[in-house]
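pinned: reference chain
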Amino acid sequence: MRTSRIPARHDTIESMNPHIEATFQRLPGDALKIVFRACEDVRCDEPLLELGEFEVSELCRALGDECRAAESASGVQASKLKDPRSRFVLVNGWQSWSFAGELAGSERPRRAFYRRALNLFVDHPAEVALRQRARRFGRRHDHISHFLLGLRAGELRLMLVSDNVGRCAGARAQGIGRSERGAALGAGHGALQGAQAGDSVLDAYLPPLSFLLRDTTVRIFAYAEGASFARGEIVGRVAVLIAADYFALKDRLGQLWGATRRFDDLRWLLSEGATNEAAAEAAPGKSAAQESAVAAPGPEALSRSSFFRGLIGGYASWYNHYTAIDERIIGEDLESITSNDNLVHAYFIARGRPAVFQIDDGWERTVGDWQPHPEKFPNGMARIAWRIREEGLVPGIWLAPFLLMPGSNLAAAHPDWILRDQRGAPVKAGWNPNWGGEVWALDLSLSQVEAYLVELFDTVVNTWGYRYLKLDFLYAGLMRGVFQGRKGGAWQHYARIMSRILEFAHARDGSPVAFLSCGAPIESTAPFMPLMRSGADTREHWEWPEARLIGHQGRPSAKVNMQGSIGRSLLNKTLLLCDPDVVFCRTERTSLKDTEKFLVGMVAAMFGSQIMSSDDPASFGKSAPPPGRLDEEAFTRQLIEWYGRLEGKEFGAERSQLRIRDVYHFFSRDRKIYGGINLSDREGVFVLGGASAAALPRMTGESVRPSAAAPLPRHSLLIFGA
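pinned: its structure tokens
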């Protein structure tokens, strides 16, 4: 492939796949795009459809003056992006539990080698095929990334990102289909309400993309198994972005994804409406049409991704009780949440901010049978939701709607609803010892399954009254299998079901409903449910040694959770409202030290949009702390004080050094607050150098700029300027 110029419309590129035509396109005011079209009718019988191959230098040439401007502003030549010895590679895992972050040289995310079923929690459905492609050229260790791929040398950044999300938004707003020639950036997921999954809208949803990077070559693949494309139809689109620094790239991403209106349907949960005029006017219960009447932000706000300020917050039962919950336990938590100065009450409720009270796993009969457990919740789930509303909180509940256990009543009553492989055996969607082992997935292509899911969500929202739904293990909706219902690819069935679920984004009484997506394929879920878990589950312990030993990439642990939050920080408030999972203030039932708890809490606030707690509200402040540690009340006050210092600030983060993992430096957009984060098990050194140092002002008083290097203890955060 060779291209020496980019005309106003497009250049055709020689493609490795004779069935696919690739063109560069740049419309006025838009980013450079690579558009892939079918040259003839294409039927995808294999899991992956190869779209094209590009050299890094070719992409930089195609960017033209944009690349030269970024080189000048960053002081780094684009040729550095080609050198594996001097660059970082930003990879993004398939779903929200998969690894995300900057890698160097031969570094790659680990995968489980002993209990290989654990890889189902992080792997792409076509992981085997992807790794076969990576080995085709004799390289086992090609970088594999999904949805986006980034290269960084110094401050200079080049990113390839699937344009599916922005295109989907435009299609929802305008009703355009897959054969359209242009692109339109549109509103958030509320624009889909009432669409009833019309074919003209769902045609706009393209298969999710994956990238393989080998030295200086990027190959692009679509997960399109089972789909058909007519001649001239768009198969995929990739935006090519280059920027001179972190926030310049983040702003470009926000523009690409229409971030200024993307999260409108979640403003009713916004905790800090005073910082945003539009948010202050968006009251609960307003329709999307009513909210569109809010005054548009000014030009300065439109150019920034930080328009969505404040934090969504509340209480979740999981890390307090895990599955050992019942009506009495939940009732005691509810009564206690407003009786003392625990984090949820002090930071949200007492300040008049919305707060969620979410019942997690353990309320149901079993996974797949979404009725209340008759012994644990004899009065049903509607009564609990009513009690939560009476306390002035938002009723929340956990579901894994696409999963079912082999022993569930649903599996026994409807074995034909189970997704099966070519041998007729159920597709294994996971292995969870807490549930008894193997877990299966529903066949989303079936109209009966669609009707069942619609009835389930109607019950949860309109009969029981829940207004915050945590939807877990959503990756199961994109598993490979033999679909027995509608024709098409897994992503098409997934999009249709997600659009049906979003019909319940407002209850029948007009009140809004929020969805937290978890374990979610990022590209295919973000257009529907942008409030999303940004990493693996956290845990009340720094690490899980046994799971680490066997290489479980998505293991619950405080460290792995923060890796994901930092690795996906560019997506926060541009593509997603990142949920970093819970923070911990308690002193019992945790091995986290004060510095580690503080680090967890600060990373959540700097790189996330939601703060949840699972500390037992009834026992707040009643347990004596271990020697040398703060009690729960003092620690909570300190954390809230720091949250006050961070309010209104937006933060970026990147890895500090090529040869040292898990050490980062962070900085606010105005560069007044900055510092280092050490997630490693060794003492590190905070080095302030390069363009980041030059951009930071020298400050006087107590907050002084550090020397070129400062000690950075293990499991800690070093912060200046706050």
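why pinned: Residues 178 and 204 are 4 Å apart (CA to CA). Confidence is low (pLDDT under 50) at residues 1-10, 170-198, 272-306, 694-706.
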